[in-house]
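Example complex used in Figure S2.
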Amino acid sequence: MNKRNKRRNGKPTHKDRDLSSGVLRVVPLGGLGEVGKNMMFVEYETSDSLDSIIIDAGIMFPENDMLGIDYIIPDFDYIMDRLDSIRGVIITHGHEDHTGAIAHVMETITVPIYATPLTRGLLEVKLKRAHLLDDITLMTVQAGDTIRMGPFQVEFFHVCHSIPDAVGLGITTPVGLIVHSGDFKFDHTPVDNWPPDFAKLAEFAGRGVLALFADSTNATTPGWTSSETVINDAFDQVFRKAKGRIIIATFASLISRIQQVANAALKHGRKMAIVGTSMIDNVKMARQMGYLHIPETMIIDLSEAMRMRPEKVVIMSTGSQGEPTAVLGRLASGRYRQLEIQEGDTVVLSSHPIPGNEEMVHRIINRLIHRGADVIYERIAPVHVSGHASQEELKLLINLLRPQFFVPVHGELRHLHMHGKIATSLGIPEENVAVIENGTILTFTPDSMAVGERVPGGYVFVDGSVVGDVGPAVLRDREMLGRDGFVIVSLTVDHNTHELLEEPEIISRGFVYMPESDDLIQGAQEAIDTVLSANGAGSVDDMRASVEGALEKYFYSETRRRPMVFGIVHEIAQEARA
Amino acid sequence: MNKRNKRRNGKPTHKDRDLSSGVLRVVPLGGLGEVGKNMMFVEYETSDSLDSIIIDAGIMFPENDMLGIDYIIPDFDYIMDRLDSIRGVIITHGHEDHTGAIAHVMETITVPIYATPLTRGLLEVKLKRAHLLDDITLMTVQAGDTIRMGPFQVEFFHVCHSIPDAVGLGITTPVGLIVHSGDFKFDHTPVDNWPPDFAKLAEFAGRGVLALFADSTNATTPGWTSSETVINDAFDQVFRKAKGRIIIATFASLISRIQQVANAALKHGRKMAIVGTSMIDNVKMARQMGYLHIPETMIIDLSEAMRMRPEKVVIMSTGSQGEPTAVLGRLASGRYRQLEIQEGDTVVLSSHPIPGNEEMVHRIINRLIHRGADVIYERIAPVHVSGHASQEELKLLINLLRPQFFVPVHGELRHLHMHGKIATSLGIPEENVAVIENGTILTFTPDSMAVGERVPGGYVFVDGSVVGDVGPAVLRDREMLGRDGFVIVSLTVDHNTHELLEEPEIISRGFVYMPESDDLIQGAQEAIDTVLSANGAGSVDDMRASVEGALEKYFYSETRRRPMVFGIVHEIAQEARA
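Predicted assembly (1156 residues):
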């Protein structure tokens, strides 16, 4: 019986099998973006079994030149012919880049999801929206728990990050213990007073770590990431100086930041209003689940806030990434009906622009200043700290665990490269460090790591409600259309002679300002006449091609622009035309 | 005789006139971008005279969402009905954002241009390319010179910046002395050994400064900008460690950086090849003019470099801003025929990404690493320093000059706002600080500054060879086309009944991947049939509108995308159709 058939028939449990002689494979998935951030696949194969787990199911955000794309999901083709082997999906924390693709994944896979309470709550919202909640088993785990998933024993350990209830994973496999840091930083004084689980890391080290997969997001940042508590002082200053309203924008999921604002508001005698659906929902859930401690009397709604004296109010909102449609973006452009920026307002952007968003964030800051606000942002006061470990913390993690093999993940290639250099600087042999890209298969035995082939895969774009239909060809067209627009020429010609019967109709968008381009259009008509009389009557296809060619040339010579040009030719019998 | 006629007839010189009772106006121009960076207008008006000067004539680079725009020139409508008053154009230094619009300006204005030798050299190239060089008087000035321009006496003083031969201006006007810092930093140890002219600044202070206009680019950066010399050590390290070729990318105009690379190459026994037309041209000119000191034997061409041992070569290139078509971008994507990145190459990005370019720069770094290069950039080693003054330098400038009025310029509103705060923190009264936007008229008398109206104006986009035709409407269309593409439906209907005679022809680009969208197109055909049979025969316009509406709705419900939909209706007599 071959392996595949055996898996299909009856799925033997790990207890029945000889597990000692297999290999462990780890594959970071997720297209061409940050390595292993959105999804990782761990599988263990013996001669007669295959078992696997999925870690995280997140989305990437499109880059500025991926026009029209809403978000990107991991390319998980690799998993599709291994569906039977999957023992479960583990989500390390509740951020979009780790949870956002959960509905896409769970449409094809029916296995339990394991997550801590807050993460589970955030996943439930997504699965409900996708009408999948009833079909799926969600298992709540706590940091400190150990669960068995086929041949894997997974220990969840607490890490600090910019959302509560984040975990890292210690995965005991038949070939050894691998540790996955999750997104983490070593914060000794986190807002929720729950420091990282150093004891567990030490214990892992005692047992011997085969491989460490560690967060590289801040691998190019020297030093140690500041504790969340430094923000308390910055907020205290803002609250002491502000004469009018305070408006603080941050990520909707940044629960600890919302707690810090609430603490400052309580101290300085301000009430707190929250705007933005996602933040309202998150605050509600986090309070119910005990992750956020705000007295009921502190929270008011916006209309109430508008009636209070400005110096008695703090408003929390979304939109700190410069998104034009989020609350802060609408405030900046005066398109938020319920609230208007006024002289004396203090606006705080408690966030760091995600790469690619810098320009939009700066634009919003300029607009808020233009409207009279005093704007405080990361550049001018410590109102934000990163949720990811800097170089000294990365060194500490490696030295706490002393892994045999090291794989930097969660970062662009430049971050992984630097993280790899950090590891070798600590004495990990260069050949034991694997700087790899998504889709690369790493194979482990108890004393080896091999970098294998890269499985095919790229970006899977989600645009509107359609997944994966937009590829390079459509993007290239969008780029051309976005740059120079298009021109359509509709020609009506005689069926027999192919002579032009009417003046060509020209439609154009995004090319030139048509109401002021009469001369250009007139010239285009002439170019069409010229090429048609020069070429004589050819086939309809020839006519179309020569007109398109002539117009492309004409428009380029007149404007140095290259709009897409399309010809449509209608043949009619001349004597009978309308 | 009114003022205007008087100016037209015979232009009295300043000596003939009573200049004591006029007002001075200063207007930063340049659309909605960085204030006064690209152009400033200074005019002095009495009851019977108007005299003015233009400072700088630069371009802005488009933001990421200004699709298809090549660059932006200042909106100088304000100047157009004052052409007779202009005494000259002063260019403070040779960077694009101060020189790039010179040809556009000199097409309408025939006055002399005043610039230092290197700046003049760079301007000549531009004017020659625009076939304007023969019509224009270029006057060479040196730092330290004083020239008279109508009622203005202009003193040029040396400043340090990231291009040699940069100057600031002391402009003695009938109402007082105004000082314009130009782009500057206080570098005590510049590469060309020419420190800033502190003595001149002290002298200005002694005479009394009415108003200071100062560079705000780095107003949000604490401390003191590092001297260019710190780069020497960083380069020294790079050259000592590199085992193979070194490729260093920077701005083509950053002459001092090129000198530093040449110095390091000389010290470490490497020959230097330069690639990229603009850098080759600049190096040639700067060497001829004595701004760059590289022995002839040091410089080799690329083909020679390719034949030498890798550790004997350093290659300088353009493309440090991530531009995909510049040398570094082509190296990163393997599209530079003459040179290919290989294992062992060290690539240095000696630059800082201009806001909005971060993503492209990071992408190029990742690609270079992917190709096997070791990439050194600002984030991981001090291989670049800014050319602009940080907060402590800004304070020093203000305290050296102790101006009565202060106007932060050269920055986004957020920079000006911070620079304004810095000035007030030094004791300049808040009401004497003007944080203004482009187009705002400042009026000075010997003891007052008034912030006036904002003259109408916005972005003037240059796209291809056409200036100013692309406005918000075209950009909106480009954005829509870039996001969701378009669909054109060509309908052939009976002239009398308006019945559909043929299956509608559908053309689409940038919307969906057409080869795999048969079902969608089939559905669109059906939607057209449905709406046309439901609505019955209406006018051609009604038909078109209802088909467009039905398709927009259909496509949105199927894909959640909103392509532009256009209908073209051809009426023919049914009995006679081809």
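Chain B touches chain A through 71 residues (CB under 8 Å). The domain at 24-223+386-467 of chain B is CATH 3.60.15.10 (Metallo-beta-lactamase; Chain A).
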